[in-house]
Amino acid sequence: MVVTLRPWARLVSSEEEIGWTLKMRAILLFVVAAGLANAQQAKVLTARQVVSLIQEHVGVPWTGETVDTFKAGDPDTPVTGIATTMMATFDVLKRAAAQNANFVITHEPTFYSHQDKTEAFAAANDPVWREKEDFIKAHHMVVWRFHDHWHMRRPDGILTGMAQALGWEHYENAETPNLFALPQTSLRGLAKSIQEKIGIKVVRVVGNPDLQVTRIALVPGASGPQKHLQFLRRNDVQVLVIGEVPEWETIEYVSDAAAEGRQKALILMGHIPSEQAGMKYCAEWLKTFITGVPVAFVKTAEPFWMP
User: Fold this and answer.
1) 157-269 CATH fold
2) 47-154+276-297: which CATH number, 3.30.700.30, 3.40.50.2000, 3.40.1390.30, 3.40.50.150?
3) Rounded to two decimals, what is the model's pTM?
4) How far apart are the first and last CA of the chain?
5) What's the pLDDT tens digit per position in 88-111?
6) What is the pLDDT of residue 86?
7) Using 50, 70 and 90 to split pLDDT, how confident is the model at 10?
8) What is the pLDDT of residues 41-56, one digit of tens each?
9) Contact indicator for 267, 194 with CB cutoff of 8 Å
10) Residues spanned by CATH 3.40.1390.30 within the chain?
């Protein structure tokens, strides 16, 4: 007996076959995507690999002579979380560990000197250094400094973050980013505005509090008197805003200038507050190319207080 399929029967069979094929393709794509996602999650970055990514993205050649090196811990430690901070104080380390951030990227030293040399502390079995070192080891933490190249970046990462925090971005000089032409205010008003916007407990000011100012130079941190004088000698700078300096250097110079009747003033924010927002900005910058690892900013507490 010969069976003849009707045209509509062959059509139904063809449609079922196409539907089955599409379903199988969808399932296959889902399985592949899930596998890739699992593979990405399984690939845990080490601290050394994070630093390599930073070196690739910072936009300036990496120099051999630099303080931007590992300060504590094993660089090949898998990273559970990244904490950027102004200074890896014991307080910061404890708060980072509480957030499960075992890789701390600090702008300033961890062990009390620019080069972070610890031999003398180890030889003396210094209790303060020892407890900090032991805490880092006990919590499998890694500390790396990001100072020189964050400043070398264009634009300077610290200056960018501070200008944003102060709300000065639109007043910045395009050719000399440290210079700002702000709406006119008194020296007292400028110092108060900086204190409130950054959240500083102790701000020091040198100069006539009633001096009307508009031309500002922002030089965060402790860049030294030579750089300070370069700006103070300019006719287009009335106020120099810095982090810190010895009192017999820039502070005395500005005090003398003010006593001579010159329109010069100095605002000292303190080293930590003067650069802190730059490391908050660093955390946001890291998130643009580091994925799969939590990145957060951990604020360094201002050490000074008013009695």
Assistant:
1) 3.40.1390
2) 3.40.1390.30
3) 0.86
4) 109
5) 999 999 999 999 999 999 999 999
6) 98
7) very low
8) 447 999 999 999 999 9
9) yes
10) 47-154+276-297, 157-269
User: Do the beta carbons of residue 96 and residue 144 sit within 8 Å?
Assistant: no
SS (H, E, C) the chain: CCCCCCHHHHHHHHHHHHHHHHHHHHHHHHHHHHHHHHHHHHCCCEHHHHHHHHHHHCCCCCCCCCCCCEEECCCCCECCCEEEEEECCHHHHHHHHHCCCCEEEEEECCCCCCCCCCHHHHHCCCHHHHHHHHHHHHCCCEEEECCHHHHHCCCCHHHHHHHHHHCCHHHECCCCCCEEEEEEEEHHHHHHHHHHHHCCCCCEEECCCCCEEEEEEEECCCCCHHHHHHHHCCCCCCEEEECCCCHHHHHHHHHHHHHCCCCCEEEECCHHHHHHHHHHHHHHHHCCCCCCCCEEECCCCCCCCCC
> For residue 193, what are its two tokens?
């505005």
Q: What is d(CA 246, CA 266) in angstroms, rounded to the nearest whole number?
A: 13
